[in-house]
Amino acid sequence: MVKLTTSDIKTTEVLDWKGLHLFHFMGSSCSQKTRIALGVKGLEWKSHHVDISKFENFTEWFMGINPRGLMPTLVHDGDVHIESNDIIEYVDGAFDGPRLYPTDPEEKAFMDASMRYEDDLHLCVRALTFRYFLPVEMMKKPDEAVDVYEAEGAETVGGQVDGRKAIEVNFWRKMNANGGITDEQVIDAVDQFLIAFGKLEERLEQYEYLLAGGLSALDIAWWITVFRITKLGFPTERFPMLFAWYERLLAREDFAREVATPPEVMELSKKHQAACEVEGKSMQQMMAAHGL
């Protein structure tokens, strides 16, 4: 699990904080799955909303508690934890409530591998989000903001030099240089999700949830990914078991609450996706054109 050492933390005031504090952004997929997990656990926490559209995650203060500048970040009694899947595993072990991680060794091994697989797809989620959620002008980060991000904050995590920020910088530089997400990135991401969703479909043909033991953090992590991709125009009929599972969880208040989107934002998203369709560039049109 990714827990910062004292030497990693430059915003030292948090070392004296008591209780459970979550730094998050309302529309961030990783923030959403973390909030769902905290809700399922029945935990109370203090909210610190960080507006990434205004680059608040690139400030010296925030990067002093998360050198990667990413959402979410958890502070618990002065300890700082980063990366959503690691945060969920930490709170599951640290607090009472419904267990989100299995004790059976085989199920735990399967879950760990599948959670890593889900996490490895985060740039694919981002590519499709930035292509289809809102117009590129509203999604990209200007070069001057990326310059600040690249220069700010000490890049150590767990006391070791960390290369994650370089990956993030490369993504933003490439997006700006290309004027947005390229068709190649879209097709690669969709292809990756067709493979991943096929694996989930097979699993759900055997079980009600992704683990035989019932609802777990694995469901929460993959559900957020399915939620995001579905809202961007992915054809739900391809995987009937997966989307029946998705709808069952969407009916839960603790899931639906954390992915609620302001109506005005959803209206903008629908208009943007309609414009993509007029151009022949909707997700499904792109899939058809490439034989997917």
Could you list some keywords that capture this structure?
292 residues; alpha+beta; 14 helices; 54% helix; four-stranded mixed beta sheet
Structural account:
The chain has 292 residues and is α+β, with helices and mostly antiparallel strands. The chain has helices at 29-41, 60-63, 84-94, 105-120, 122-132, 136-139, 143-151, 164-178, 183-204, 217-231, 240-250, 253-256, 263-278, 283-289; strands spanning 20-24, 46-49, 73-76, 79-82, 156-157, 160-161. Strand 3 (73-76) and strand 4 form a beta hairpin. Helix 4 runs parallel beside helix 10 (217-231).
Label the structural class. Answer: alpha+beta
Provide a count of the helices: 14
Could you tell me the radius of gyration in angstroms? 19 Å
- Amount of beta strand: 5-15%
Q: Give the topology string: H per helix, E per strand.
A: EHEHEEHHHHHEEHHHHHHH
Major sheet characteristics: 4 strands, mixed
Distance between the termini: 36 Å
